[in-house]
Amino acid sequence: MDTEGSDTSPTPTATQPGWLAHWPEQLTRVPYWAFQRQDVYAAEQERIFRGPAWHYLCLEADTPEPGDWRTTFVGDASVVVTRNAKGEIRAFENRCSHRGALICLDEKGKGNKGFSCVYHAWTYDLEGTLTGVAFQKGVKGKGGMAPDFKLSDHGPRKLRVATLHGLVFGTFTHDGPQLDDYLGDEITSRIARVLEGRKPVVLARYTQALPNNWKLYVENVKDSYHASILHLFFTTFELNRLSQKGAIIVDESGGHHVSYSAIDRKERTAGKEYAQQNIRSESQYRLADPSLLSGFEEFGDDVTLQILTVFPTFVLQQIQNCVAIRQLAPRGVNESDLHWTILGFETDTPEQRLARLKQANLVGPAGFISMEDGCVGGFVQRGIAGALDKSAVIEMGGDMAQSSESRVTEASIRGFRKAWRTHMGIANPTQAAP
Amino acid sequence: MTGDMQALYFKMSRALADYARCIDDDRLEEWPSFFVENCLYKVTTADNHCEGLEAGVIFANSRGMLSDRISALRQANIYERQCYRHLIGPPSILSSGDDDLRGEAAFMVARIMRDGTTLLFATGRYLDI
Fold it and tell me: Which domains does chain B have, with CATH numbers?
């Protein structure tokens, strides 16, 4: 499954940043400066995004034929994904090894034999290997590169690539874990539940600009506690009542999670807890056109919602029949871009396709549900602006990062912190035996 | 331009101006009445449109779905107080028939936050087709 790229120049390891020593011991506190400091951001780029983590790149279907390519992101780095002449997927940094210009300017293309940098026409094959330097021998015996210049000594960094049920992942680290081991069986099987054995069709792509540090969005996705409180739309229509059947799965590394809810056919009278807590969700709001939510049975398991994350920035979402991939790209300390890909499947009937188009209203920048997630990170970013010395309190459901049958927990946020600490080189508290 | 065309042009300009004013005045409950019951309303990106990708940021195929957008904004969704200012360019008439008028117009929308911060919120075109 894995395809090896070659040739990575060793990167010098930055000296241990001083702030690491000030990180709190427990998982239940996150200092607000972690969302505000440039040196934290820079260390994350080095240790997580260019480190041993695996990152979602694109769909296999995005580059179906040899010569097809698409650009994507791994953290700050622009990355080109290609399909080589043998039909294998390759990925390399979108950076000319001469002066650093982007090699590909567009998002995608077809029928390429290779690439040529617009700046000085250094050329690359579909693997990202440098194949030519314009005027390498000079003109009329004058100028040119030194005689000992070797093409093979230069080239953009290549990523190790692996595919899983139509998803393409990549990592800059060539000696890290395999993708399967990185994900573990539990996460892999829940990706399979949504994507295995069917060909996805892209229904839309768009990018949502988030006015906040990337980690605030990741923590929001992992936060099952807020879902039914902040998002009235969800709860009123019983898409995600906490007292529905459901659970949180946090993998051993802490970094990946699944939150799901399913129709509880035994007990469909949820709602008492909400009334007692005096939470807004107890309104009498009804849709004029409820066909928005009229879906179809797709998975055969009564699971109406499955939100799955892969550390650090990949989300696979199934909300009823609304299947989407969210890829988060940090854009500096205070900003991030959320790249949405809304999916249908080749086997969709016209009625099923229409149901997906309607349910797509639930998500994205104008999504009935996702709308709040697009702004709440900004509320935090602005709220903590003058509080570098304070910390977030993440104690709901205890102090560990374990799977839980209750979703009134922040276990998967603590899990994210656990994995983040591992990558950053901060020791984690010893977990008590379950 | 013939008199008929002038009349059509005037009609379209006026409809667009009224439409924008309705939103900018925050009379959102009136907004669905600019559409027929059996409408198709999509907000999507230029790239999705060019590639023929079907879904959008907003997709509605009934006036009821448009009303639901407004009631959700008013009653369900959480966001900061903000208002909008639309600038709509002169419309182009693409075709006209007995009971049928197709056109497009460019727009820019500014978003004004409660502290006065004004952002270019969206640029694009209305495709009334």
Answer: 3-128 (3.10.450.50)
